[in-house]
Automatic annotation (TrEMBL):
Coiled coil: none
Keywords assigned: Membrane, Transmembrane, Transmembrane helix
DUF58 domain boundaries: 207-373
Transmembrane intervals: 12-33, 39-59
Name used for this protein in its record: DUF58 domain-containing protein
Secretion signal, residue range per the UniProt entry: none
Protein origin, superkingdom: Bacteria
InterPro entries linked to this entry: DUF58, vWFA_dom_sf
Length: 446
């Protein structure tokens, strides 16, 4: 092996320096006590021999270890993603190893390491979780191993080439979870309310023979007379209704909660709602708006349409300008011709900020069923439940109560004008949005 390579990979351990300090101390004592000096020479010789054996053990092979990192093709934003490391020891003895994986800089994890033992010739697998909070491309580096024998004087650094770039997409893990529950009709297990449908839907499906359990009010007497047997009308849920997710890209969506911006909560929920709508045979679409150009994905009901929506959501970013609601009105009139359920994800912190946009919201509500979704400030809610002990805390709590009251006033004002609202903590956004969608569908409002 190249001596330069050995020097690059060679790392002396703390144990080496402790043993060397012990040898030096023995020589120091031997200077004053001659018999100890002879003993110190024996110890030093033994130290050199053991050090040499340790070097031979660790550098006996050019490639002492092999392995790879298994990462999903894409990571899910805001969720725990499992990363797997598969490593094998090529040396002829069981080695102790410290594994340091080069994690993308976005996570800001500076102290990641796994200490383990690697038996000779046996592949071992290690897993850890990563929770990204930003969409985009994440660069993984090499896998670094610091290997040592049982002697422990020397550590050999081994770098396994494993550089790769992985994109982080809106939360498809959350989307699949809700999809699974929706397909199996178990949405109530995760907090979705079971809403009783009022009356019949008006979309006729077929006439069929009456069987026990059918609603007698659905008996078709004319068909019964012709067939000389009881016949009933069968209905199905109204289908192909438009569900449009509208996302505000302005500065109000930049506020962070639990590592994610409000925009990311809105993006993740838009993906979930779009997928649920497609499962329910509705058409899902997407519109974004800010102070400049918008993105429009026209509503369709093909199951593959969810991929187009996901790709559109992947590249969304907020800016620091105030959003232009007039642009939103124009965009909806231009691209959405059919009356639709419009889920508007935005945020109003004060009553006056809502009042400025109210004429545009009312204009949208004339053409569509508008649901305005904005966020409860969970940090402020915590303040409201804390006991105030000082004048400063009383003052802070009073201001928090004022903002909380304004949020309730916004809900009341919008409801009075026929605009549906959802005021929700960011973490409960998906559940509350699905509940509202299913409620409006059950009431026959869309």
């Amino acid at each position: 092996m190249n001596p330069l390579t050995i020097l690059k990979q060679l790392h002396l351990s703390n144990l080496f320096f402790q043993a060397l300090a012990g040898v030096a101390l023995t020589f120091l004592v031997g200077y004053f006590v001659p018999p100890v000096g002879a003993f110190a020479e024996v110890i030093f010789f033994g130290f050199v021999v053991i050090f040499g054996i340790d070097l031979l053990l660790l550098f006996s092979k050019v490639e002492p270890a092999a392995g790879n990192r298994i990462v999903p093709q894409r990571l899910s934003n805001g969720d725990e993603n499992t990363i797997r490391l598969q490593l094998s020891n090529q040396l002829n003895f069981t080695a102790q190893a410290e594994i340091i994986d080069e994690i993308p800089h976005q996570f800001q994890i500076r102290d990641f390491s796994i200490s383990t033992s690697l038996p000779s010739g046996i592949e071992k697998e290690f897993t850890y979780e990563l929770r990204p909070t930003e969409r985009g491309e994440y660069d993984f580096g090499d896998i670094n191993l610091f290997i040592n024998s049982r002697i422990g004087f020397v550590r050999r650094k081994v770098s396994i080439a494993a550089s790769q770039t992985v994109p982080v997409y809106p939360s498809f893990i959350q989307m699949r979870k809700f999809e699974m529950y929706a397909i199996s009709n178990r949405l109530t297990d995760i907090g979705i309310k079971k809403i009783r449908r009022v009356g019949h839907t008006m979309e006729f499906d077929q006439i069929k023979e009456y069987v026990r359990g059918d609603d007698v009010r659905s008996i078709n007497w004319k068909a019964t007379a012709r067939a000389n047997d009881l016949m009933v009308n069968q209905y199905q849920d109204e289908r192909s209704q438009n569900v449009i997710n509208v996302i505000d890209m302005g500065r109000v969506m930049k506020m962070p909660f639990d590592g994610l911006h409000l925009l990311d909560y809105a993006i993740n929920t838009s993906l979930v709602i779009s997928n649920i709508a497609l499962i329910k045979d509705d058409k899902a679409g997407l519109v974004t708006f800010s102070n400049d150009d918008s993105i429009v994905v026209k509503p369709e009901k093909k199951r593959t349409h969810i991929q187009r929506i996901q790709e559109a959501l992947y590249n969304l970013n907020t800016n620091f300008m105030e959003s232009d609601y007039e642009r939103l009105v124009v965009s909806l009139r231009k691209h959405v011709n059919q009356r639709s359920l419009v889920l508007l994800y935005t945020n109003f912190e004060t009553f006056s900020s809502m009042e400025r946009q109210l004429p545009y919201l009312q204009r949208i509500a004339k053409d569509h069923l508008l649901v305005t979704i904005f966020f409860e400030n969970t940090e402020m809610t915590k303040l409201l439940h804390e006991e105030s002990k000082t004048i400063g805390q009383i003052y802070t709590k009073t201001i928090a109560e004022k903002f909380s009251f304004e949020k309730k006033q916004i809900v009341k004002a919008l409801n009075q004008r026929g605009i549906q609202t959802i005021l929700t903590p960011p973490k409960e956004l998906s559940v509350n949005a699905i509940n509202k969608y299913l409620e409006l569908k059950a009431r026959g409002l869309i």
